[in-house]
Amino acid sequence: MNEKNSECCPKFNPEKWDEKTFNWDNKKFIKESLPTFFHMPFPPMIAKKITKMWKMAEKAQKTEENKEDVLILFTDPHPFKSEMYLSVTGEVPQANNTEISGNFIAKVFDGQYNAIPKFMKEMNEYLDKKGKKAKKYYIHYAYCPKCAKKFGNNYMILFAQV
Length: 162
What we know:
With 162 residues, this protein is α+β, with helices and mostly antiparallel strands. It is built from 3 helices and 7 strands, in the order ββαβββαβαβ.
């Protein structure tokens, strides 16, 4: 997950996540928050926070065994604050440990970050056809900007808590 590794972001498999349902029962995460300006985060801060979280989880040996299973979820409780969640396998000392529970429907999208409102609208239409309604959204970005360019896709997963 850092520039010293030959692999920054692992290759993303959309089929693993697209249009799948997940039931999380106290799924473990560590959490950080960062300021945003009308939902726009400051990219250098994201990298610093993710690196900090990853190092803490790695030191505690609580990272997912398979890198493709690591989730970094984002949610914006209001226009000036974003929350980030890194999936872990257990308690991480000195971290803000938390758990997420609920039923989630996931859908994969490929596009620019500023298309998220459009993707959320599409997701709401998809959920409506299933007779579901989102209570809350979490977004996982499969690639950092550098890897999105390298792989030629900018995948993101919208997890709708239903």
